[in-house]
C-alpha cells in the first residue's frame, strides 16, 4: 500500500471512529438544520470545516502552533455546543445571515478541531521526510469520512422528514438539543476542570 493511500485511509478511519465521536457530533450539528435538497450548502459547510482544520493541523504538525491539549479537548465540545445552540435558536437556515454564521462556525471551529487531530497525526508521521503528501492524504480522508457521515445523516433525515412526516423544525430542534446535551457532558468530563 502506498503512503498516500495509507494516510488517506487513516483519515477516513479517524473521523469515523466512534471513540472520537466529537467530530461526528460537530458534523451532525452543522447539518441538523438542513435537508437533502440543501446538499450543496452542506458540502460547502463540510469543506469549510476541512479547510479550517487543515490549516491548524498543518501548523501544529509542523510545530508552528502549539496549544495545551487540555484546552483543545475542552474547546472542541464548546464548538459543538455553540453550533447546536445556534441551531436551537434558529432551527432553519435563513436566506442571509444565518447561513453565513454556519459557514463561520464551520471554518473557525475547524481551526480548533484541527488542533485536536494534530497530536494524533504527529504521532503517525514519526520521522517522515516530507509531511506534505501524508498531510494532504489524511485531510482528504477526513473530508471523505465527513461526507459519509453527512450522507448517512441526510438519508435518515430525508426518511424521517420527507417520508415519515416528522416536522423539519422539530427534527432540527431534537437533533440539536441532543447534540448540545452531549457536548455539555463532554465539556464537564474534560480534564480542564
From TrEMBL:
It comes from the Bacteria. The keyword Magnesium does not apply. The chain crosses the membrane at residues 20-36, 43-65, 71-89, 101-121, 144-164, 171-188. InterPro entries: Put_HupE_UreJ. Keywords: Membrane, Transmembrane, Transmembrane helix. The keyword Iron-sulfur does not apply. This is HupE / UreJ protein.
Amino acid at each position: 500500500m502506498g503512503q498516500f493511500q495509507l494516510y488517506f485511509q487513516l483519515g477516513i478511519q479517524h473521523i469515523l471512529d466512534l471513540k472520537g465521536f466529537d467530530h461526528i457530533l460537530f458534523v451532525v450539528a452543522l447539518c441538523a438544520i438542513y435537508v437533502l435538497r440543501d446538499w450543496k450548502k452542506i458540502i460547502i459547510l463540510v469543506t469549510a470545516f476541512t479547510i479550517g482544520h487543515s490549516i491548524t493541523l498543518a501548523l501544529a504538525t509542523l510545530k508552528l502552533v502549539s496549544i495545551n491539549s487540555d484546552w483543545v479537548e475542552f474547546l472542541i465540545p464548546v464548538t459543538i455546543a455553540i453550533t447546536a445552540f445556534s441551531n436551537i435558536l434558529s432551527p432553519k437556515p435563513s436566506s442571509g445571515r444565518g447561513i453565513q454564521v454556519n459557514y463561520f462556525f464551520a471554518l473557525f471551529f475547524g481551526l480548533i478541531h484541527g488542533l485536536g487531530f494534530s497530536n494524533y497525526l504527529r504521532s503517525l508521521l514519526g520521522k517522515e521526510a516530507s509531511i506534505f503528501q501524508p498531510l494532504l492524504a489524511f485531510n482528504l480522508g477526513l473530508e471523505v469520512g465527513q461526507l459519509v457521515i453527512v450522507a448517512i445523516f441526510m438519508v435518515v433525515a430525508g426518511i424521517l422528514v420527507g417520508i415519515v412526516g416528522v416536522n423539519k423544525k422539530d427534527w432540527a430542534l431534537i437533533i440539536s438539543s441532543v447534540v448540545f446535551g452531549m457536548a455539555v457532558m463532554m465539556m464537564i468530563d474534560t480534564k480542564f476542570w
